[in-house]
Write a structure and sequence with these properties.
alpha/beta, Rossmann fold, 8 helices, 9 strands, globular
Length: 274
């Protein structure tokens, strides 16, 4: 039976493993595109065959934390400064709040949820950026990460916003510093310096933005060149664009064929490591 709640201010959906015994946590962050809530992500990527607790977390600015002005206010933040006030802010806050979320979950999940065991992280788009930032900077043991159509380079996100909204982003010293922090190709040395090295699955839709596909390939190359024990896999998915669900992507909905095509390699990857 799934558990819904709020942990350290973060909305979550937690789903126990089918076998019911002790199991590690797979922490999942959703996209800013559909599915854009923890509830919708749990339906799009249920991972029922994975013998772990799946804990789906709501991103900042999304789900129950959507600003009072709703979608229009989010778009205003994007136009004003997408990196410092929207995409980059959501990614960095999601990674920063994870330790407090895990501590709060101790009080809300059964003892069968092995919170102190090495974590498995999954994220899509901005949620993928949060997973990669956690992998890069967290001191918590992390066994493996799955990045799905992930925000691998902040400069690619900014360029897409510029193109989509017809605006020119006003770079500042602060935003350039954040873009460097959120460039996981350039931070490949730090990622693969972890001991033990993490296993990484990079899922890339063949119909995703071309820059995101290029970044996925570049991350696979950069991590692979530094591999010394860890496994790095790039999984291109035929027909997959950027979203994993149909709009509006706010509530639980039937899994799409493209999401099922993503779930298959993700579940296999996780089951081989849990």
């Amino acid at each position: 039976m799934e558990i819904r709640g709020v942990a350290a201010g973060v909305p979550f959906v937690a789903v126990p493993p089918a076998h019911g015994g002790p199991a590690p946590l797979v922490v999942v962050w959703h996209l800013m595109d559909a599915p854009r809530t923890e509830v919708a992500m749990a339906a799009a990527l249920p991972l029922d065959d994975v013998p772990a607790w799946r804990v789906y977390l709501g991103l900042p600015l999304m789900s129950s934390r959507t600003p009072a002005g709703g979608f229009e206010e989010i778009m205003a933040l994007v136009r004003d400064d997408t990196l410092l006030k929207c995409h980059g802010a959501a990614i960095t806050q999601a990674a920063a709040e994870l330790p407090d979320v895990l501590e709060a979950l101790r009080e809300q999940l059964p003892d069968t949820a092995l919170i102190d065991a090495p974590l498995f992280l999954i994220g899509g788009s901005a949620g993928g950026g949060a997973a990669l930032l956690t992998l890069t900077e967290s001191e918590r043991p992390i066994a493996a990460v799955v990045a799905i159509n992930a925000a691998i380079r902040a400069t690619s996100v900014v360029a897409l916003v510029e193109q989509g909204m017809g605006i020119e982003y006003a770079w500042s010293p602060e935003s350039r510093a954040l873009a460097q922090r959120l460039d996981f190709v350039e931070r490949a040395d730090e990622i693969m310096a972890r001991r033990p090295q993490p296993d990484v699955l990079i899922v890339s839709g063949k119909h995703d933005h071309q820059s995101f596909q290029d970044d996925a390939f570049a991350l696979r190359k950069a991590l692979g060149e530094r591999r010394n024990g860890g496994v790095v896999v790039l999984a291109p998915i035929d027909g997959l664009a950027h979203p994993l669900a149909l709009e509006p992507g706010l509530e639980a909905a039937p899994q799409t064929p493209h999401a099922a095509a993503v779930e298959a390699p993700v579940a296999a990857f996780l089951k081989a490591r849990i």
